[in-house]
């Protein structure tokens, strides 16, 4: 989920005031104007990573140590609970953190912030998705040396976490990231293509894998869903609408399943290619009728959530402030919420934020034009990271 971790995130702590609201941005940056169509959203902290700890054995040591959790990233809902992956400083290829820790931690909490359980997994967890029929899936290591974990929260501690190795050396020469369950299919982003091989894009590099789990052997079997250079139909409304183009993806990252009631792309599987500023929508994924459409965006984004109601709670992560937050306000069912990530663009400078490349901010997405529009927020200091999960007041949920 977190492309900035691979290169160039150097966030400050200053806050910029927009019309009485605050957006967490570094000072002296070029800042997008807030949307005039939205009243400010209110941000409150639900949980701080510093309030939680885990035990670990440092690389090269046999001594158990203890540290606070940090770097919350992806988030998913199961019933009335949330599951959040804390990366704890682990590197994108599974490298030890500065204090020698090699483990991320997946935390289960209520929507009010009460912690119910936590489980360590070896590596940097990126995608976290809960599925009542399966458990909680977590990918580790977005750039290379990747694996998949299945967590069963109700199993005895000794049996709760199972590691699955991929069935082959991943042919896109990178790692894995976000996870979606679509009609029983496990779909996983093929992130950071070319990290250990030829630079992306390449016609033989899968952009997304369809994955099946062999619980007897602990192997995750991978099959390409589509490729970095597959053909797609242009989705942006304009003169090129419905024309065919060839993808050239370099940064497959977040993914979601679009709710069926969405006015456009309803029921599709969606992959965000973060650095390329594109979203790829896949109808009938994994079938003979599969078709791809590509929506070009005016700024890079990470996670996307579709509000199911005008009022609800948008749960979100903030690694800058080491927090799980909730955003409340008036939402629009026809305007998906996104985390805009200017520093995740392929054109971003090595040191970022920078002029014209501000820190992450919350925004809405126009699914017809690809326009990403900032929204004003107030309340707790807030720099959104990767994860979003919307829960309507009636409890209905869509990422």
Give an account of the 3D structure.
The structure is a single chain. The protein is an all-beta fold and 399 residues long. The chain has one domain: Neuraminidase. 0% of the residues lie in helices and 46% in strands. It has no helices and 32 strands. The strands form 7 sheets. Strands 10-11-12-13-17-16-15-14 form an 8-stranded mixed sheet, with no helix packed on it. The protein is globular.
Walk me through the topology.
Layout: E1 15-18, E2 21-24, E3 41-48, E4 53-57, E5 64-68, E6 72-78, E7 81-86, E8 103-110, E9 115-122, E10 125-131, E11 135-140, E12 147-151, E13 161-166, E14 175-182, E15 185-191, E16 206-214, E17 219-227, E18 231-234, E19 244-246, E20 252-257, E21 269-273, E22 278-283, E23 291-296, E24 301-305, E25 311-318, E26 323-330, E27 337-340, E28 361-365, E29 372-374, E30 377-379, E31 388-392, E32 397-398
Parallel strand pairs: 3-30, 13-17, 18-23
Antiparallel strand pairs: 1-2, 3-26, 4-5, 6-7, 7-8, 8-9, 10-11, 11-12, 12-13, 14-15, 15-16, 16-17, 18-19, 20-21, 21-22, 22-23, 24-27, 25-26, 25-31, 27-28, 28-29, 31-32
